[in-house]
Design a protein that fits this description.
Layout (H helix, E strand, L loop, with lengths): L3 E3 L6 H13 L6 H11 L4 H6 L13 H17 L2 E8 L1 H5 L3 H15 L4 E9 L4 H15 L5 E5 L9 H13 L3 E6 L7 H5 L4 E6 L7 H9 L3 E4 L1 H7 L10 H6 L3 E4 L4 H4 L3 H10 L4 H14 L4 H18 L2 H4 L1
Parallel strand pairs: 1-2, 2-3, 3-4, 4-5, 5-6, 6-7, 7-8
Helix pairs in contact: 1-4, 4-6, 15-16
The structure holds zinc ion.
Length: about 325
């Protein structure tokens, strides 16, 4: 199985928790495939569909105690490792990240999965809502900076307006503060329009952009992403499901790569969308990527991952060993 990396994965706290509670109770979890069918039939593609992702809560927040948290994070990581991931990053909401002992609980979940999959590392990042009240945002950023010492890997910035140009004056300060704290910074941008891609790509400290799917519409944006060496996190199934592209074959992933843009893969909201990292790599193969190109996606994910230098070096060495062992004989002569 080709080693994979998932660098864009939301925690989906309630859908994951529902799976844990369902398993404990011996009942079936919420039926997301029926939900998907309804949504595709009724809701138009674009922002309207995106907003539906955060509207269904099959499990209550009150049930998310420490034990359930470890179990649901382990569920997320185990699914990823079983799909072949060697590096998985999970994005958490701010209340959780600020909770005492957050990183310790996360590492406990990671440890459970590492016991089953020794070549696997996971990191946690915080999804920061920039539209929060200023005092709240300041508290969240301070909290994230403090958690960096515990191993929090980075932040993912979410803001409004999302599909039209936002004001990045304040965003630049947020990026600066996060980078100073040693946190990696990724930003959601360019999923449904070209808005914000250029502004975000030009911020020092931003090394990754979640989606940037619409960058194909503007050659200058493609040049900019390549020049700034920003890694684009492509979530193929999610882009199709929410309508960022009409069909998989229209996805610009190959075009990005041909333009010299670094690309890695993500599952985004795998429970709700109904995907796994294995299926995302299969989708990339369907777009015509060779096994070597798929391995490049993993390398890009590990290189751009918000993890320690030590872990990165170990994972890259593993990928090199994998590539050498699986290279055709003729190329080894
Ligand atoms: Zn996302």
């Amino acid at each position: 199985m080709i080693p994979k990396a998932d660098v864009h994965l939301h925690q989906e706290w309630s859908p994951r928790l529902d799976r844990v509670l369902a398993r404990r109770a011996g009942r079936a979890p919420f039926d997301w495939s029926a939900w998907r069918g309804d949504l595709l039939a009724v809701v138009p593609p674009g922002m309207a569909r995106l907003q539906r992702l955060s509207q269904v809560f099959p499990a209550p927040a009150a049930a998310d105690d420490d034990e359930a948290f470890v179990e649901r994070v382990a569920d997320t990581l185990r699914e990823s490792a079983e799909g072949g991931s060697i590096y998985t990053e999970v994005r958490f909401g701010n209340d959780l990240v600020l909770r005492p002992g957050f990183m310790e609980l996360f590492r406990r979940a990671e440890g459970l999965v590492r016991a089953e999959h020794p070549v696997f590392y996971a990191e946690a990042i915080a999804a920061v809502a920039m539209y929060a009240e200023p005092e709240r945002l300041a508290a969240v950023l301070d909290g994230c900076a403090a958690r960096a010492a515990d191993g929090l890997g980075g932040v993912d910035l979410l803001y409004v307006p999302y599909a039209t140009e936002a004001n990045w004056r304040q965003g630049a300060l947020v990026v600066e503060q996060a980078a100073e704290a040693g946190l990696g910074v990724t930003v959601h941008a360019g999923e449904f329009s070209t808005a914000n891609i250029a502004a975000v790509a030009q911020l020092d400290g931003v090394s990754r952009i979640g989606h940037a799917t619409q960058a194909w519409r503007d050659p200058w944006l493609l040049d900019l992403l390549a020049e700034r060496a920003v890694t684009v996190e492509c979530c193929l199934s999610c882009n199709v499901f929410l309508g960022a592209v009409t069909r998989l074959g229209d996805h610009p992933l190959r075009r990005f790569r041909e333009h010299g843009i670094k690309v890695a893969l993500g599952t985004d909201n795998p429970v709700q969308i109904g995907t796994t990292i294995g299926e995302e790599y299969a989708a990339a193969a369907q777009l015509g990527l060779s096994e070597a190109a798929l391995l490049d996606l993993t390398r890009a994910g590990v290189r751009a991952g918000f993890t320690s230098g030590e872990r990165r070096a170990e994972l890259l060495a593993y990928l090199d060993a994998y590539a050498n062992a699986s290279a055709p004989v003729s190329s080894r002569l």
